[in-house]
Amino acid sequence: MKLIKAALVTATLTLLSTSVFASQFGYSAGNVVERLGARTIKTDAVKTKQEAYQLGLSQLHQLNKAKPVELSKKLKISGVNIDRRQIHLNEGGYVTVEEFMNTDGQISYKGKINVSFHYPERDSNN
């Protein structure tokens, strides 16, 4: 009986100390939440619809090649509990074009880059 009690106490202490050490050295499995987000980024105004599509496509390719830390800046993802090394774009980004007229009656176009992304965030509700 003493052997069983000693084994239980040892196992309990081992489990408790493991979770304490794990939380000191980064994220532990119980307090990280996967966040999803979406952004639309507009290009500068250009004179033709084709130029707007080309400009938008170029910027979409740049986002796809960007490193996670760069993505956090370009997509304006903020927060103190975010691991900026783990931000990733989801597949399915696309470009649309917005047509508008200024006060002089001139029609211009802006490319709109639409992307979604995900990243882990440390949940502070502990």
Structure description:
- There is one protein chain.
- With 126 residues, the protein is of the alpha+beta class.
- It has helices spanning 2-24, 49-65, 68-74, and strands spanning 32-42, 88-89, 94-101, 107-122.
- Strands 1, 2, 3 and 4 form a four-stranded antiparallel β-sheet that branches.
- The longest helix is centred in the N-terminal third of the chain and has 23 residues, at 2-24.
- Mean pLDDT is 80; it is low at 15-28.
Overall geometry: elongated
Low-confidence stretches: 15-28
Secondary structure: number of strands: 4
Share in β-strands: 25-35%
Structural class from helices and strands? alpha+beta
Radius of gyration: 24 Å
The biggest beta sheet reads:
4 strands, antiparallel
Topology:
Blueprint: H1 2-24, E1 32-42, H2 49-65, H3 68-74, E2 88-89, E3 94-101, E4 107-122
Antiparallel strand pairs: 1-4, 2-4, 3-4
Notable characteristics:
4-stranded antiparallel β-sheet; about 35% helix; alpha+beta; elongated; 3 helices; about 130 residues; 4 strands
Describe the structure concisely for a colleague.
Helices cover 37% and strands 29% of the residues. It has helices at 2-24, 49-65, 68-74; strands spanning 32-42, 88-89, 94-101, 107-122.
